[in-house]
Amino acid sequence: MHGRSDAPICDPAFLADGGAMAVLLRAHDWDSTPLGALFAWPESLTTLVGVMFGANRPTFILWGPERRLLYNDLYAEILGDRHPAALGRDCLAVWGGVGAGLAPLVDRAYAGRPVHTAEGEPLLHGDGGADAARVALSLVPVRDTAGRVTGLVGTCTAIAGQAAAARRPRETEASRRDNEERQSFLLDLSDTLRPLTASAEIVAVASRRLGERVGASRVFYAEIAGSLMKVEREYVRGVGSIVGEHSLAAFGPDLLAAYRDGTVVAVEDVAADPRFSEAARAGLGSREVAAFVDVVLFRGAEWVSLLAVQSAVPRAWTTAEGNLIRDVGERVKAAIERARAEAALRKSEEHLAAIFAGASVGLSEVDAAGRFLRVNTELCRILGRPAEALLRLGVADVTDPADRAPSAAALARALETDRDVTLDKRYLRPDGSAIWASSSIRRLDDADGRLKSLLIVTADLSRRKEAETRLAESERRLQDLNETLELQVSERTAERNLFATIVERTDIMVMAADLDYNILAINKANADEFARIYGVRPKVGDNMLDLLADQPEHQAQVRAVWGRGLAGEEITLVEAFGDAGRARPSYEISFRTLRDARGARTGCYQFVMDVTERLRGQAELAQAQEALRQSQKLEAVGQLTGGVAHDFNNLLTIIRSSADFLRRPDLPEVRKRRYLDAVSETVERAAKLTGQLLAFARRQALKPEVFDVGQRVRAIADMLDTLTGARVQVVTEVPEATCLVRADVSQFETALVNMAVNARDAMDGEGTLTLRVTCGAALPAIRGHAGSRKPFAAVSLIDTGTGIPPEQIGRIFEPFFTTKEVGKGTGLGLSQVFGFAKQSGGDVDVRSTLAAGTAFTLYLPEVASEERPAGDRLQDALAPLGSGQRVLVVEDNVGVGQFATQILEDLGYRPTWAANAEEALEELGRAGNRFDLVFSDVVMPGMGGVALAQELRRRAPQVPVVLTSGYSHVLAQSDAHDFTLLHKPYSAEQLGRILHRALDPRRKAGALADPS
Asked: Residue 223 belongs to what H/E stretch?
């Protein structure tokens, strides 16, 4: 997320014949203008610049709507002292006084019509003096592919003034000789400076050459930093050295103003020049400076350096000498910047080589025939071959035969276009196995546009089914490569271009830093993203922490994350970065360590991918899944309520019809008894239905007790003989050893009956039903639930029926799901088994084979043998009558309360009814002696029945409490809390028996089982 250096590395071809103007054009700060970086200029503009530099007459270019001025050396002479400040400015502003007269001509040419001024109508141009050069002007429009005018090409034919015409015969020959000598000197100097790599050496050579050329006493090149001028090397002849730092304030305000206004400042006699103060004259005199020419060198609007030519005696400086000194200064500045850029590039390329070798994708360079020229470590891993073996092969040699044709076609397309060509194909490994990979191929050209090689980026797709999203992202990431890195040193960067191009053109963000957080290498994608999220654009050499000094929160985050990588951790993490006011995306960041030739850590580098959309998609998927689960829950609730309503409506139909017939006064006694029995049986069926529902929901109030599973299975096997019919053989396999569990006996027996009924129906009433008991069995993992190594009693019912289709096994425990005909099953039998097993701490498993049979296995946790099995339950009998005992009835439902009170009166008790627990406590008083027994509902507004019973146990422990409920979540979670429980609906006989037992002083000590 940090930027690349924008220092020039090589001269573009279109500057080859540009002379002094080519040097100025290259050194100019174009990034701050609408034209943008020199290397990003459109091809149409660079072509025109090359033509302009080759012209033998004054030629200039006006580009863009801002009319930016570019020109050659001959036009620079016409501009006079307006050069070089005119470069890149609006032409009308440069032309000054004549701009108003030229503006209509420029507008006409920008409108698309060529303009040519006749020689008989010369136009004043240049410096605007009375004897200034006159020119005949031609302006030709330049159009883009859409036909729009993007600029103008102008040429000038000079027409001399009267005084100039008189002087021309005398000046032309001398001027020509001076110009030839100056150009020869400058070309020789450029050739001498080009191979030099140290800035001090460049300054020394240029200073000596220039000093000898103009006969100077001292020549030096100084770099400007703030208010100081630093001189490192100089040429001296007959005077002392001034190497060191000097304050610019010593020049005085007038001279400093002159430096800012122009690039060349000439002083012929310091002692007589009024711009110097006495202190400035004294300072210059102490340095033996009597005359000098200073050339101020700018980068854009910034004053960066100074070339000074000094004389120990006063002297007059010619214009040719000033121009020569200015041109030498530009060449020295450009040579120093080139040398420094080459040094920085060499260092950066060392890090780029490490990044190439450690890239997380396979990288290779192949020639036009498809033979490997260079490969990285990841590609060797993907293909299962060492680099030495791959460099002896071609792409076709490692491609699966079925994919060789499309692979060759992709290579051919890549050779014909500058766009990426992507395909998925299989590569062959040495062991004969194939591996899927995605390859992105791009043509790489040299600076002259000739084919150099093909770059192939290969991503491993061996886990394609598990990573479809990541694959798509990888293909997008590696498909679009950015513009070629053209900042390179000619003839010496063929190998280094590969590494720089790979890193620069990928949209994976890459950056390397040293141990002090200084940026060593960075690609464009990283720099663009850094600028987008932090508002500041980095470049090579910047310190990350300094860039974020005014953003302490983000600085701390960058320090923490990069600190781990710089400490040697090779990690991959996902984290959000950036200023929330701009953008704060999430990134997947991988750090790898940089080491020198000795293996010592020198820094680290990162690969960064924006995963914001991927994380957002994952969150949206989770939300959609949750919505689906809720929908499924609602569908299940709808199915459940529909089934309940259907069965209860059937039962209510029987009750209502019977009640209507019972109201008839003339109904015979036999039919009356039949209708009463129908009502009673229907109530029992309704109670069984609600019990099955509660069992499935695991909300029934169980009455767990310890019993021997084998004993109960033997007992129920006799009943199953009658239930299943004579054609079904019931076989029991029960161990002799005792196998104890703690569960509700009634529900256990019901579960076995329900499974047996299903087995009978599956066998169509004929076959073998095996009841098998296994003790000490481990609970296996069932339907995705974890198993247990604790001992379980396993009760299996195995039939020889038709079996269950595989697509239905997952639904057999759903409420109201049945494969039986309408009216032959509620679909709640197996739901009761499932709910009972779960609520008892166990589970139920099913194994089935079509046409062979089904095995249901009920798992219940075993208990220690110290727990004694429960005795047999009391058999039903007629309810005994009371003898006037006082019973407090607590019931919030008016109808039930009145009915219970009436039953108790008929049974011989003296009932008192309280509508809630609070009223009951007031009736009982502090001592609780008014009543012999409390009969309370469990679910009531305010204080519930269990809480009431616990309070009574604290106040009056001698008063027995009997609870009654059809359902309570409290009872479902922890049974009856040691209180006697009567299930609703109950009969008068059941109520009478349980009250009689609760009032029996011999049985008060223990909780009583429900006799129902």
From this structure: strand 218-225
